[in-house]
Amino acid sequence: MSDDGADAADASSPTDREYAEWLDALADGDGFAVVCPEGHGSLPPRRVCPECGSPELSREPLDETGTVETYSVVHVPSPRFADDAPYATAVVDFGPTRLTGVVRDGDAERDGDDAAPAVAIGDAVTVDIGERATDGERLVAFRPAAGETPAEDE
Question: Which residues does the UniProt record annotate as the domain ChsH2 C-terminal OB-fold (predicted)?
Answer without folding.
Answer: 61-127
